[in-house]
Specification:
eleven-stranded mixed β-sheet, four-stranded antiparallel β-sheet, 9 helices, 17 strands
């Protein structure tokens, strides 16, 4: 009989946690403790480690607010992370053990965001079935604009004109190790003017993360006459190149800077990646769509991948007590 147990992550688990993340089938560097903890002052960490007998089979990056637990709110995506050797019944049992552990600790709800399928090293939707069995409620759905780079993709005519304009204007693209120019000259002013907002990552934080993950966080700037006019920050995982930030200098002269930049990234830098992810164009917890932004991404050949968010009552662990039926072996001649 297999026994499942859950413990809350402690600093002494740092090495074991990161080693597990390194071999999980649905993990990226965002789940490494060095990434999760760069903003640990903003969140009360409540990450969990799930064991089958003595073997670690899953982890849940999470934080706590009052008597509710959230897939870590400092991460773009999250949920249950598990080994590529784990079977469906193992994940269901692991999820049941999480709900039971939280319920025993007077936690009423678990808010779980999934990991989009494009970030899976191999199929890893076991948690979606476990959520269904636990009668979890779908509370948010975002739309990622994604290019499948294994397929032939055609840019729209308007994008092609922008690319040609960038060539004619003599634009130059450079990969930089420093983020200061893009942050201070382009990103921060644009976010302030258009949205009265700031980047999720401060300049100090993005430099810190770059020092931890030098090969996974990349900055590309576009220059016109040696002056920065646009840029993008890319988070690279084994299967995906994800645009974390996209911004350009807003002036009267349209240089085609972003068209020029993304043509280069899609057809050259990340051409051998499986997916190119522009991110979401949603607002208001997925209820609104920025159709102009969505159209711009789709004009590069992107189409939609769904990112779901759920909430589940921890008392629903009982619904997972009899999740399968035994059947007789069927032999075929």
């Amino acid at each position: 009989m297999k026994n499942y147990s859950v413990k809350q992550y402690q600093e002494s688990d740092y090495t074991n946690w990161n080693a597990f993340i390194g071999q999980a089938k649905n993990a990226t560097f965002l789940f490494h403790r060095d990434f999760m903890e760069y903003h640990k002052d903003r969140f009360e960490d409540f990450s969990l480690m799930i064991f089958e007998n003595e073997k670690l089979v899953a982890v849940l990056p999470a934080n706590k607010i009052r008597n509710e637990i959230f897939s870590h709110q400092g991460l773009t995506y999250g949920g249950l992370v598990y080994s590529d050797k784990s079977k469906l019944t193992t994940i269901i049992n692991a999820f049941r053990s999480v709900l039971l552990f939280l319920n025993d600790n007077k936690i009423e709800k678990l808010h779980l965001k999934t990991i989009p399928t494009i970030y899976h090293a191999k199929p890893a939707e076991e948690i979606q079935y476990a959520l269904f069995l636990a009668e979890a409620k779908l509370v948010r759905r975002d739309c990622l604009s994604v290019i499948d780079l294994s397929q032939k993709n055609n840019f729209s005519k308007i994008r092609k004109r922008g690319i040609q304009k960038g060539i004619a204007k003599g634009l130059v693209i450079k990969e930089e190790s420093d983020f200061e120019l893009f942050w201070n000259e382009i990103l921060i002013p644009n976010l302030e003017e258009r949205h009265h907002a700031e980047p999720v990552h401060s300049l100090k934080e993005i430099h810190l993360l770059k020092s931890f993950f030098p090969n996974d966080i990349r900055q590309f700037n576009v220059y016109h006459n040696n002056e920065i006019v646009a840029g993008t920050t890319v988070f690279e995982t084994p299967t995906v190149a994800h645009c974390q930030y996209i911004s350009k200098y807003e002036n009267d002269e349209n240089l085609g800077s972003l068209d020029f930049l993304y043509h280069f990234l899609i057809t050259d830098v990340f051409a051998n990646k499986r997916f190119f992810d522009f991110g979401i164009s949603n607002e208001a917890q997925g209820k609104l769509l920025n159709d102009g932004l969505s159209y711009w991404k789709e004009s590069f050949g992107a189409s939609t991948i769904i990112h779901d968010f759920y909430e589940v009552k921890t008392a629903n662990y009982v619904k997972l007590d009899t999740f399968f039926t035994k059947s007789k072996n069927i032999l075929t001649k």
